[in-house]
TrEMBL record:
Domain HAMP as annotated: residue spans: 1-33
A single MF term (Gene Ontology): ATP binding
Highest taxon of source: Bacteria
Protein EC: 2.7.13.3
UniProt domain Histidine kinase: residue ranges: 41-256
UniProt keyword annotations, A-Z: ATP-binding, Cell membrane, Kinase, Membrane, Nucleotide-binding, Phosphoprotein, Transferase, Transmembrane, Transmembrane helix, Two-component regulatory system
GO cellular component: plasma membrane
Subcellular localization, as worded in the UniProt entry: Cell membrane
Keyword Transferase: yes
Full protein name: histidine kinase
Organism the protein comes from: Mesobacillus subterraneus
Membrane topology listed for this record: Multi-pass membrane protein
Catalytically driven reaction(s): ATP + protein L-histidine = ADP + protein N-phospho-L-histidine
EC top class named in words: transferase
């Protein structure tokens, strides 16, 4: 640790300097702790699928198992490899955002056709789960966005709406103008987020319920990525939720 002990209590310049050094040391320790926690979480996330992969590879190699069984084990190995791959891809995106290497190329985009293309892309998955998807947007809204990056933001949020909603519910994508801003909201009627978890959902690797997330397949990185991408666009992303009633994510952007 950066243990610094500067017993200077005076209120002159030297005292102020001692205070600054102390504050800096505290910040450094905090950052070091955060980095350690993050690495520990990633190691854990990688260990689980790798344990499955190794275990099932060992079983699949046995000579005395039925072909269907072997196919089943190989399928699990494939799925778990896919999971590792997804985690690495998401981590790589975040690392590039952190390095400011994430160049976005903004263009003036008419919002309705853009939202409609995303709507059409995700609709089959919603229909399969028997969740209604609605799009309600004014025609004459323009924004400056990088279509592919901004599309990723909406996909991440819509993926969650799908994952955390039950059949027979409705998810609504809305876009309206408010003052000189554009407000895009994605509202679901899903399980909602407990109040005590709300402050953390945009943090990296944060999941409301780890065991449930293991089944739904998330790493708790989707919203962290979405928020950073929205902020790179100069906008904001926020959430409101009520357990049992649903969740609404709101993006605010400047109008173009
Ligand atoms: P994940 O990939 O695990 O879904 P996210 O970063 O996208 O990670 O979301 C973080 C957590 O926030 C999720 O694990 C989930 O518990 C909660 N969450 C996000 N979106 C919703 C939603 N629409 N409804 C209920 N819970 C949600």
């Amino acid at each position: 640790d950066f243990s610094v002990s500067v017993p200077v209590q005076s209120h002159d310049e030297l005292g102020e300097l001692a205070q600054s050094i102390q504050t800096l040391a505290n910040d450094l320790n905090y950052m070091k702790q955060e980095r350690n926690d993050f690495l520990a979480s990633i190691s854990h996330e990688l260990r689980t699928p790798l344990t499955y992969i190794k275990g099932y590879a060992d079983i699949a190699r046995r000579t005395n198992i039925r072909p269907q069984e072997r196919t089943h084990y190989l399928q699990i190995i494939g799925e778990e490899s896919e999971r590792v791959n997804r985690l690495l891809e998401e981590l790589f995106s975040l690392a590039r955002i952190d390095q400011n290497e994430f160049l976005i190329t903004k263009e003036r985009v008419q919002l309705f056709p853009f939202l409609h293309s995303i709507y059409e892309r995700v609709l089959p998955a919603f229909l399969t789960k028997n969740i209604e998807l609605q799009l309600d947007s004014d025609q004459d809204i323009f924004v400056d966005i990088d279509p592919s990056r901004f599309g990723q933001v909406l996909s991440n949020i819509l993926d969650n709406a799908l994952k955390y909603s039950n059949e027979g519910t409705t998810t609504t994508i809305r876009a309206i103008k408010r003052d000189r801003n554009v407000v895009i909201s994605i509202q679901d009627q899903g399980i909602g987020i407990p109040e005590e978890d709300i402050p953390y959902v945009f943090e990296r690797l944060y999941r409301v319920e780890k065991s449930r997330a293991r089944i739904t397949g998330g790493f708790g990185l989707g919203l962290a990525i979405a928020k950073q991408l929205v902020e790179i666009h100069g906008g904001s992303l926020s959430v409101k939720s009520k357990p049992g009633a649903g969740t609404v994510f709101t993006i605010v952007l400047k109008e173009s």
